[in-house]
Amino acid sequence: MTLETTTIETTVPQEWVNQLNQFSLETGRSVQELVQEAIGQYLKTISTSLNPNSQNLEDSRIEQDLLILQQKVQSLELLFYQVSKLEAKITSIEKIIIPEVLITSDSTFAQLLTNDSDEDEPDEILTDFLP
């Protein structure tokens, strides 16, 4: 069920705008989403306090909650898509920057790793100095 929407314009103190912008950055949600949610919560609070037993108000509140949830889902879907694109880009960059290094058993590096004939390091623990 999609609710019909209308654009409302109003003026608010600059401090509110600053706070909304800060919340938007912190939450990753748009200022429009934050304002819609705030209005929805306010209307829900007022309608409940004026007439808590009205079924129409309850239906309206549920529709408002549904609209808010739909907007949040759309926002999350967009973020998920953006994260997926970033993951793909990071994977491509990693393949370019950090190419896979194959160590073959006959390479010098592999021989150094497996060579156990170092003369400067004893293989046994010396215990002659212990009492």
Quickly describe the structure.
This protein has 131 residues and is mainly α. It is 64% helix and 0% strand. The protein has helices at residues 14-27, 31-50, 55-97, 108-114.
Question: How do the helices and strands line up, and which of them pair or pack?
Answer:
Blueprint: H1 14-27, H2 31-50, H3 55-97, H4 108-114
Helix pairs in contact: 2-3
Question: Can you characterise this structure?
Answer:
- With 131 residues, the chain is mainly α.
- Helices cover 64% and strands 0% of the residues.
- It contains four helices and no strands.
- The chain has helices at residues 14-27, 31-50, 55-97, 108-114.
- Helix 2 (31-50) runs antiparallel to helix 3 (55-97).
- The protein is elongated and about 90 Å long.
- The N and C termini lie far apart (86 Å).
- The mean pLDDT is 78.
Features:
single chain; 131 residues; mainly alpha; 4 helices; elongated
Give the tally of β-strands. Answer: 0
- The proportion of residues in beta strands is under 5%
Order of helices and strands: HHHH
In one word, what is the shape? elongated
State the major sheet: none
Summarize the amount of helix as a percent range.
55-70%
User: Could you tell me how far the N terminus lies from the C terminus, measured between alpha carbons in angstroms?
Assistant: 86 Å
Q: Tally the helices: what do you get?
A: 4
